[in-house]
Please model this.
Amino acid sequence: MTEINNAKIETKEMAKESESRLSCQICSGQSHDLFYNRDSTRLLCCQTCKLIFLDPLPTPEEIDKIYDDLYKNASTGYFAKVDKKLCRSRLRVRLLKRYVSGGRFLDVGCNGGFMVEAAREAGFEAFGVELDRASIDYAHRNYPNNTYFLGPIEAFAKNAQEFSAVYCSEVIEHVPDLNGFVAAIALVMKPGAVLYITTPDISHWRRPKNLEAWDGFDPPDHCIYFNPSNFSRLLASHGLEVFHRQFAWKPGIKVFARKRDK
Ligand SMILES: [Zn+2]
Model:
């Protein structure tokens, strides 16, 4: 019993220690609850906006290491189920075309270039940004009529602007610096441009109660876990207003946001 109490006190002290040095990236809240703690993985939950994040967040060096291992399939120069990937990409481009007729399209975290290719087929001038060299090589080889950039969106954004559509699927949950990432996305978008962005939804009614049984739970690769409310708030703080939520049967957030005219 004493041991349990000691463990509780220790946990409280750990949480207190975090309070003093962390502030929530979305709402700047300073108070967090311990949400998950097992082995070396510790997640905190912001008491105000309920953003859940890994503590400590990965450093840039750790991110590089994660990316070395991340696209294991891509390292062989081959992606599985390519037809299925292209088919899904074409459906998603069709959804996007409801809100933006053409212009320049960018996929942030473009993987093997499937969505970039689908956007080109639909009449966009299509670009892809990706951190993984093997994925970019694959995209160049298989879909050569598009433009690709190897590196982070923050670097790409310095010289690229005026996109009318940006797509970013299942990437932002990997990103420790949320505001730097979303600011870079907003920077490349022209006023009125549309962002189509997806990420797992930890608050979704179909998310397994046992966190470890959920395929969206993947620390340390997934270091941030959103709910629809704090996700919209993050986008809005960078001038991106959510105007449509796609129904998600699986525990995910899929939203369209428009860049304000200023
Ligand atoms: Zn917060």
Notes: The longest helix spans residues 2-21. The radius of gyration is 19 Å.
